Amino acid sequence: MNRDKSESFYNRSLERALQILIAFSNERQSLTLAQLSKSLSLSRATVLRLCSTLIRYDFLRQDPESKLYSLGFRLFELGNIVSYSFSLRRIASPYLEQLHMKLDKTIFLGILDNDEILYVDKKENPEDPISFTSKIGTRRPPYWGMLGSALMAHLPDSEVERLLLKNPLTAVTKKSITKKEEFKKWLQRIREQGYAIDVETALEGIGGVAAPIRDFTGKVVASIGVSFIASSVHSNELKKMIKEVEGTALTISKEIGYLEERQRAL
Based on CB atoms within 10 Å of each CB, which residue in 45, 108, 147, 219 is the most buried? Predict the structure, then answer.
């Protein structure tokens, strides 16, 4: 791997911990302390210290009898997150493209990941003179704009409280909601109507409409939204956007296993 070791951000301890993780493979699913030490050309004391930290965070586990190390369940959880986000994007992508073509607006797909909004897909016209700053891979606070509110509206109250405690509401425009009770009422309204309309709470002059995507259990796992210049959209066009966004969200939900009839019967 090419790197500049003089770079101030280089971290040798982190590199060694990562080397321990990638020492495992399908052929070597369990390793002893001695094997790891020899593979990494590090002292047993150093490897033991690093492994102890990795075990503490569930990146490694150690069999109490054989003392063999193997990869931990935290990596399995993270792998599932990556796998799910990629599979969701693959399934949703053609429908996002169709929505983009119908509305001629920028379309976003987002999920909650590590207590933040993560943008996993975006459809836009590259020739459009107006480009939205959020890109695929961009992270925002969980309450951010249309996507965040559409996702948070379907979380348990205790989870909303936890997220707002960790990420306090912050004013970024004149219309940003900064009072917790007012924000909770807004979430309730979104939950009742089934979609979120954002009017310049995240970006000055920018509006948006978003709807939730549900998995086979009925749980909201993502949200899809359309962004636009707030002053350029009249009421009839807004109604059309709401209908199209909700329809696309439902179609994607069904593609990943959501059964609308089943949820109504529950």
Answer: 147
Residue 255: CB atoms within 10 Å: 14
In the prediction, which pLDDT does 177 show?
A: 94
pLDDT digits (tens, 9 = 90+) for 176-193: 999 999 999 999 999 999
CB 123 within 8 A of CB 131: no
Q: 154: closest CA among 118, 183, 182, 192?
A: 192
Give, in words, the CATH class of 80-265: alpha beta
Nearest in space to 107 (alpha carbons), one of 118, 117, 96, 91: 96
Same fold, 12-71 and 80-265: no
CB-CB contact of 32 with 68 (8 Å): yes
Is pLDDT above 60 for 157? yes
Q: Domain 12-71, what architecture?
A: Orthogonal Bundle (1.10)
* DSSP conformational letter for 130: -
Calculate the dihedral angle through the C-alpha atoms of 42, 45, 50, 51, rounding to the nearest 10 degrees.
100
**Considering just the CA atoms, what is the radius of gyration of the chain in Å?**
23
Q: Token digits for 217?
A: 């259990």
Long-range contacts formed by 80-84: CB under 8 A, 24+ apart:
81/113, 84/221
Q: DSSP class of residue 212?
A: E
Distance CA 209, CA 211 (A): 7
Domain ranges of the chain: 12-71, 80-265
Mean pLDDT (the chain, rounded): 90
CA distance 11 to 8: 8
- C-alpha 209/C-alpha 228 separation (Å) is 9
Sign of CA dihedral 119, 123, 126, 128: negative
pLDDT at 1 over 60: no
